[in-house]
Sequence to fold (219 residues):
Amino acid sequence: MKLKKAKPKKSPPRTPRIKKIAPEFDALFQAAAKCKLCPRMADQLAVLGPGNGPRNAKILFIAEAPGRFGAGRTGIPFSGDKSGENFETLLAHAGLTRKDVFITNAVLCNPLKDGNNSRPTSAEIKNCSGFLRSTIDLIRPRLVVTLGGVALDAVNRLLQTRYQLKADALRPVTAPDFILLPLYHPSPRVANWKRPLRLQKRDFAKIPKLIPGKRPEAV
Ligand code: SF4
Fold:
């Protein structure tokens, strides 16, 4: 006699997991989303939110600004354009993933001139420095990696230092609350003319050595 197979019981539908954002991060994200301090970026989306990385990351990357085809479009730092592709390559070369790092920019919105990406002005970097300060205070990274001269200028403003990319790139320095490592920006322009990706891979390989011990856990 054939036994009938018991039908598997249907499990109840899962309630979607909502990731909780700590209130202080939420307040910072909201403040950035509402900010209109820079006239030419008043209509732009500030790229600062859970997509920037885990809030307990031990490594904070600071780049220049969201790019027109990258973060300015996708809302995720270093995603959607060639700079993002290069960044991912370099990160993987250092044995890291996005779950290990938080990424932000000297200015949170995309500075456009005649429809193209442009360098943020020092007034704009100053306007946005409060957001950078708060991000560092909340993340409390052990290592801050600046990518390019604009990011280094933004950190100089906070630390009241005068580091320069030309003289200080690749030289880790101890700041009061973290180690600072100035590196080059992974944009195609820099990779083609200033610091080839081959050498930038070597630069990124320094990163894990400055953060000994266990990998940070993602939240
Ligand atoms: S770049 Fe920074 S300061 Fe300027 S509008 Fe965007 S969020 Fe505000």
Observations:
- The chain has one domain: 23-210.
- The longest strand covers residues 59-63.
- The domain at 23-210 is CATH 3.40.470.10 (Uracil-DNA Glycosylase, subunit E).
